[in-house]
């Protein structure tokens, strides 16, 4: 009976448009999308350069980026907390426990994913695409844009994967955001809080929203990968 009542209350919160619940959803979407918007151009460029340029230590750089996939997000949060705290080098900016701090943490988490996926997509492209563009008079920038357009579905998969990673991340967001109601409380941190309080209705409702977003991201990523395969 308790499970039924909890589920019923969760659905009521979703259907009635509970202000507190949708504020939490909005914070999650706002921070994660802002983080991706800022880091994506830089990460995609880095991935392209790693795929097309050869320099001493390149293999070490690529291996390091790939290793960062498994880097615990709570450690990212700890490092960022130390940097942004009052005693840290950036403490004077007073960014700790803010949405900006959360976005910075999510950028750090998403960057390796975006770089590695772009690197893989560009390496998988036909080398003649870049060479042809250069022969036809395109500069380095024009050739890069031509290649990225050719592998656009792989880049889209990188974006979807990065978004799925940061929207559900809890460790870093909790440490540098502080889980402040109405400001830095996002879906994962709110679910953790409500569970520890023994009040499951809002946690279940947010879990449903998070699962819907995750499924949507996975479907979009599958479509991008499938579309990319069809265009090869």
Q: What does this entry look like structurally?
A:
By secondary structure, this protein is mainly alpha-helical. The chain has a domain at 26-186: MetI-like (MetI-like fold). The protein is 78% helix and 0% strand. The protein is built from eleven helices and no strands. It has helices at 2-15, 19-52, 58-67, 73-84, 99-123, 127-135, 140-150, 152-167, 171-177, 187-197, 200-230. α10 packs antiparallel against α11 (200-230). It starts with a helix and ends with a helix. The model has no long low-confidence stretch (mean pLDDT 89).
Question: What are the main properties of this structure?
Answer:
0% strand, globular, 11 helices, 232 residues, mainly alpha, MetI-like fold
Provide a concise account of the structure shown.
By secondary structure, the chain is mainly alpha-helical. It is built from eleven helices and no strands. The chain has a domain at 26-186: MetI-like fold, CATH 1.10.3720.
- Backbone shape: globular
Q: What's the SSE pattern?
A: HHHHHHHHHHH
Terminal CA distance reads 54 Å
Characterize the quaternary organization of these chains: single chain
Which helices and strands appear, and what pairs or packs with what?
Layout: H1 2-15, H2 19-52, H3 58-67, H4 73-84, H5 99-123, H6 127-135, H7 140-150, H8 152-167, H9 171-177, H10 187-197, H11 200-230
């Amino acid at each position: 009976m308790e499970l039924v009542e909890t589920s019923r209350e969760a659905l009521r919160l979703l259907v009635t448009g509970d202000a507190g619940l949708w504020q939490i959803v909005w914070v999650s979407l706002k921070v994660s999308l802002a983080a991706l918007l800022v880091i994506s151009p830089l990460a995609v460029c880095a991935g392209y350069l790693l795929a097309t340029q050869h320099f001493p230590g390149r293999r070490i750089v690529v291996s390091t980026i790939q290793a960062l996939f498994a880097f615990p997000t709570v450690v990212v949060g700890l490092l960022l907390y130390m940097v942004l705290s009052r005693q840290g080098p950036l403490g004077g900016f007073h960014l700790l426990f803010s949405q900006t701090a959360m976005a910075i943490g999510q950028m750090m988490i998403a960057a390796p994913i975006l770089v590695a996926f772009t690197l893989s997509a560009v390496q998988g492209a036909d080398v003649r695409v870049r060479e042809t563009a250069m022969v036809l008079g395109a500069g380095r920038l024009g050739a890069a844009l031509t290649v990225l357009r050719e592998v656009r579905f792989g880049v889209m998969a990188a974006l979807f994967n990065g978004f799925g990673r940061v929207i559900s991340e809890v460790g870093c967001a909790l440490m540098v955001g502080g889980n402040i109601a109405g400001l830095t409380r996002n879906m994962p941190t709110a679910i953790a809080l409500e569970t520890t309080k023994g009040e499951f209705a809002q946690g279940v409702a947010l879990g449903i929203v998070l699962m819907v977003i995750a499924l949507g991201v996975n479907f979009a990523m599958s479509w991008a990968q499938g579309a990319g395969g069809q265009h090869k």
